[in-house]
Write a structure and sequence with these properties.
This protein is of the alpha+beta class and 112 residues long. The protein is built from 2 helices and 6 strands; from the N terminus they run E-E-E-E-H-E-E-H. 30% of the residues lie in helices and 34% in strands. The two termini are 21 Å apart.
């Protein structure tokens, strides 16, 4: 399966499939799109009303990745389950860091 992290000028695009209204905020794994790309599946507690689920998604991922919230922006999918986020920074080190995080998250999920 491909990575949900895509290098971009001055940062990384992150493909996400959001599940709002969950019992807890957590990473659920990866989901493959029909075009072969992968989404990072994330659940959040907030309902999909007034941008609350999007705000919780950004706060949750910023905390998980230990980056300032201001470096993460929603660039597509404001009212859709499929979203594209942009994480600002040097793409090379960010991609490496995110791939390590994804591997660790996958190992943690497989232990449950």
């Amino acid at each position: 399966m491909s990575s949900p992290f895509l290098p971009a000028a001055e940062g990384v695009r992150v493909l996400v499939r959001l599940s709002p209204g969950s019992s807890a905020a957590r990473v659920l794994g990866l989901a493959q799109r029909p075009d072969g790309r992968s989404d990072l599946k994330v659940a959040v507690k907030a309902p999909p009303e007034g941008g609350r689920a999007n705000a919780e998604l950004i706060a949750f991922l910023a905390d998980a990745w230990d980056v300032p919230k201001r470096t993460l922006t929603l660039v597509a999918g404001a009212v859709d389950r499929r979203k594209t986020l942009f994480l600002a920074g040097d793409p090379g080190p960010l991609l490496a860091r995110l791939e390590v995080w994804l591997d660790e998250a996958a190992r943690g999920a497989s232990r449950r």
